[in-house]
Each structure stands twice: as structure tokens, then as C-alpha cells.
Amino acid sequence: MPKATDNRVDELAPALSTLFETARAQGTAIAAWRLPHADNWQVAISLQPDYKVGQPVLEHSSFGFLFCPFTANEQHSNLFIKADLQASSEKSAITIAADAPTEAAERFQEELALQQFPGKSKWHLPAGSELATEQPEAAYKNAVKKAVATILAEEMEKVVLSRTLTLPIPANFSPVTAFETMLGLHPRAMVSLVSVPGVGTWIGASPEIMVSVDQNQVFRTVALAGTQPITNATSTANAIWRQKEIEEQALVERYVINCFKKIRLRDYTEIGPKTIIAGNLMHLRTDFKVDMKTEPDFPNLGTDMLHLLHPTSAVCGMPKEPALQFILEHEGYDRSYYSGYLGPVGSPDGTQLYVNLRCMQLLETMAILYAGAGITGESSPEKEWLETQYKLQAMRRVLGGLNFE
Ligand SMILES: C=C(O[C@H]1C=CC=C(C(=O)O)[C@@H]1O)C(=O)O
Description:
With 405 residues, the chain is α+β, with helices and mostly antiparallel strands. It has 8 helices and 21 strands. The strands form 3 sheets. It has a 10-stranded antiparallel sheet with strand order 9-8-4-3-11-12-20-21-10-17, sandwiched between helices. The chain has a 9-stranded antiparallel sheet with strand order 5-7-6-18-19-13-14-16-15. Strand 13 (209-213) and strand 14 form a beta hairpin. The structure holds the ligand C=C(O[C@H]1C=CC=C(C(=O)O)[C@@H]1O)C(=O)O. Residues 138-391 form the Chorismate-utilising enzyme C-terminal domain. This is Isochorismate synthase.
């Protein structure tokens, strides 16, 4: 068995697939991720008996990976995958956290060395029977019509309506190969693979930062909205945005500024909106930045903004309460961890939380893909449906090279 010295294991770091298989066989939670524009992936494996947490507190957190649902409730909890074991594609060894449970760490290393992975399922599955529901086109378009009527009646300004698509998982599908494929396809995205016993396995390539606080104490968030496909004729330089998208993104921007106002923070930098690329799509994005070193009154800015922002107007709507009610009443399915948030906290890169978008959940034989679109008074059900089709394309491609219809 490899020996742990100074919290390190003296051996070459195993392949991501071996780590993933071992975590599956040992019944432990694993998260693998690659930050936008980064060269290396990282892995956190928790050896804790439970992963559930309450409202996350980011400051002074130990290193781990947060995985939180759209709405935390009895079925879906906020989860923290503590990095008891850490690995990365740039390090030649696994790091064992100083406070990791010793016996569990030894068991994990033994299994890792054996490379035998008994068990039926290929990844962690949700407990009970999570049904792979799907919203029929007519039901989605009907919900959009109702949303437009509610907005025109001035009961809300914007709501994001989402839907699922259920597809069979090809027999030779591997989540780790899918993760590696996404690294190449989505260099600008936060690419993730999260697998938790009893909760399930999620894969995604998110374009939207929720809250980040880096090592230099710089806080960042964005207002992201408005969508159009990239075609041969379009690029970020000559993208033309309709009034509908400009207003939709401005609402998200206003939402972020309102959150700053609630905590009376005035000194933030705002850049944009700019056109950005996310896979096969373009969006409008405004970047917000706060140098926390010059804001001593806001030591918990990351946590405070996280709680105020989530769920943002890019996934829920404005005002937040009526939009959330509309979603719960009319969307017709459980979003689970789609449009929640995920990412490393207390890591060498600081805290980097992203909105869980452009993602899918792996069941035993089926995958559930998720996508939503921002509805305003000018929305057309046909166009919003098409927009969700575009957004689903990223995960369809990862799942098996299916072509867009
Ligand atoms: C809700 C999603 O995207 C959000 C982020 C960017 C653009 C959006 C839009 O144009 O509607 C959405 O607000 C999704 O991808 O499922």
C-alpha cells in the first residue's frame, strides 16, 4: 500500500477514470472540475459519512466542492464534497487532507491500488426511483404563453422557464470520457462531473459564474442572458441583438445591482454588456468586480451575495418571488440540481461557484438533459422552444454525437 508522508501519497497520480471507479466502488462522493481557460482538471473525493450542509458559508471553509440544488428541500439538499483526497492533472501525487479520516483514506488507497471495481452500476445513482420525466413541446409552449400573459398583466417582469429532454445513454458511454471530451469542446466553460451516492451523477459545462472570490480577495459575479446561435455568418464582433434580449439581460444586470444595494455596497466595477461565446451559442454578459481589500466592511461578501443572488434572474426571474412561484406552479417538473450552483470553495483558487447550466443527470440507462429560456413580455413560444433546443445541443453532443434537429 502506498505510504502517506506529509499528507501526500508517494505514487504517481492515478488516472481520473481510476479515481472515479474507486469512488463509485467505495460508495464515496467525487467531484471533478476544470475552471474556464484553465489547463488542468482537479478532483475532490470526500470520505465523510454525510455530505448534506445547510446554507453554505464560503469564508474559512475547508477545501471542498459545493453542489447545491435550485431549491433546497427534503428531496434535494445542499451538498459539500469535502476534499479529503485531492488530485489534479498537474500534480504527480494524491494529497490527503490533514483531517481526513485515516481508515477510510487507507481503504480508498488499497482499492485504488487493486484496480478491481465490483458492482453493477457504472456511476452513483439517485436513491429511490427518480423518474425521467419530459415536458412535451405543447406543454412548454403553453407555459410560455401563460408567462407572457402574466408579465403583460404586470405581475412579474421576467421568468425563466425550463424543460428536460430524456435520451438513452449509449452502451459504451463513460462519464469520464464525456468529461474529457467536454474539456476540449468547452475551453471557456466550467466543466464538471459530480457523482454522489444516493444523489446521482451530473455532468455539465457552465458558462455562468455565480460568485467567485479569488486568492487576491477579488469578488466577481456576472449578469448573463440573451441567447443566439453562432452561425458561419455571425461572430461576437458582428452579433446583432434584438430589443428583447437587450432588455432581458438588462433585467439580470438590475437584479445584481439590487443585491449590491441591499447590502449597501457602492464600490463595484461594472463592465459590459459584451457578447460572449458559450459552446454553440452567444450570450450578453456584464462583469461585476469588487476589490474586497478596499472594502473592509464586507468580509463575507461572497456568502452574502451568494444568498442574495441565488436563484438569479438568469435562471429564475424578476421579481424573484412571483417568478419562483410561477416556475413551481407551471414548469411541471422538479429542477433538482439544474440551475442550482456548484464549484470549489476554500481551494487554492479560492471560491469559484458556477450556475449549473448546460448539464445533464445520468440515470441507469437514461440521461436527463436540462435547458431553460428567459421569458419577457415579448417572448414567442416558438422561439423560446427553439432556444432550449439550441441549449440542449451541448449535452446531446457529449452524450453521443446526436445532431441538432
Ligand atoms: C437558463 C439557461 O440559460 C440562462 C443563461 C444564459 C442565457 C439565458 C437566456 O438567454 O435565456 C438563460 O437566462 C439555460 O442554459 O438553461
